[in-house]
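Budget justification aside, the reviewers requested a transparent look at the raw inputs and outputs of the sequence design task funded under Objective 1. We therefore reproduce one unedited record. The lines immediately below are the structure tokens for a 281-residue chain.
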């Protein structure tokens, strides 16, 4: 039963739970988001596809034009074994960056497809806040190489969850879309509601690292139906972007407490701690 429910977690919540009332404002937001998505579908059907970053016409749905593709800061070896950020020099197998040595994360490894700058920022914004769910296929395709470093035959993909109230407002969880696509590519198991966000947190945008950590503290739990399966299993935690790591660290903590054998983090975009401040998003 848990698996059946998990496969639906990323869809809009249109049914009220017993005893749960929604305000007129919440209903209006849901309706607006659903109309916005329908509007985009109509536009896509009538007009040619365009680059989501600059608007130039492209041949494939959700793809970038050549100019924007060339501006993507793709991550390639050598990278830090723990944080997945590029290293300036080849330091040998399993080398750690200075940032990882100073403040090693709780998760085992992080991997991303691109650095979070230039077109990557616009892609994340449009995918996350503008309802452009079609970008999921393109972003997950970019993540395949990074994912291949992490996936084991028994790996379970789990997305970073949204609070139910925010899921209603946005109508979809962008991390769940990526996790579903990637698990399908590797024929791996995915549990889209393996984690639950039990406390609505403030937006992390603009917060410094200490504030981000406090903001998400005790905000996540492992779903009860997933407890038996997560014990002893390697988990790949999926999100769209990794900045200070506060959110995925808190998710990692509860997964480890539940007995996960390892927790790796997979994102589309990574922030390099040596290049930008911790307030970037």
């Amino acid at each position: 039963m848990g698996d059946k429910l998990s496969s639906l977690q990323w869809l809009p919540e249109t049914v009220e739970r017993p005893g749960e009332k929604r305000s007129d404002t919440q209903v209006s937001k849901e309706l607006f988001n659903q109309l916005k998505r329908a509007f985009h579908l109509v536009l896509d059907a009538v007009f040619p596809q365009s680059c989501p970053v600059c608007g130039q016409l492209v041949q494939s749905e959700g793809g970038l034009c050549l100019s924007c593709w060339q501006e993507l800061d793709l991550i390639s070896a050598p990278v830090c074994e723990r944080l997945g950020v590029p290293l300036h020099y080849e330091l040998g197998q399993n080398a750690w960056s200075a940032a990882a040595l100073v403040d090693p994360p709780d998760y085992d490894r992080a991997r991303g497809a691109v650095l979070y700058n230039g077109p990557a920022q616009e892609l994340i914004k449009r995918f996350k806040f503008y309802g452009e769910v079609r970008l999921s296929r393109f972003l997950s395709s970019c993540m395949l190489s990074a994912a291949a470093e992490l996936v084991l035959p028994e790996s379970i993909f789990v997305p970073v969850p949204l609070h139910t109230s925010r899921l209603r407002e946005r109508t979809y969880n962008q991390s769940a879309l990526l996790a579903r696509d990637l698990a399908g590519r590797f024929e791996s198991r995915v549990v889209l509601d393996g984690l639950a966000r039990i406390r609505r947190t403030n937006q992390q945008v603009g917060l410094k690292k200490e504030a981000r950590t406090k903001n998400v503290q005790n905000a996540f739990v492992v779903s009860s139906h997933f407890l038996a399966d997560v014990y002893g299993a390697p988990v790949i935690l999926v999100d769209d972007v990794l900045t200070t790591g506060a959110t995925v660290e808190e998710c990692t903590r509860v997964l480890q407490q539940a007995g996960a054998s390892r927790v790796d983090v997979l994102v589309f975009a990574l922030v390099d701690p040596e290049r930008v401040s911790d307030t970037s998003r």
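The two ends are 37 Å apart (CA to CA). The first strand starts at residue 109 and ends at 115. Computational costs for records of this kind are itemized in the attached budget.
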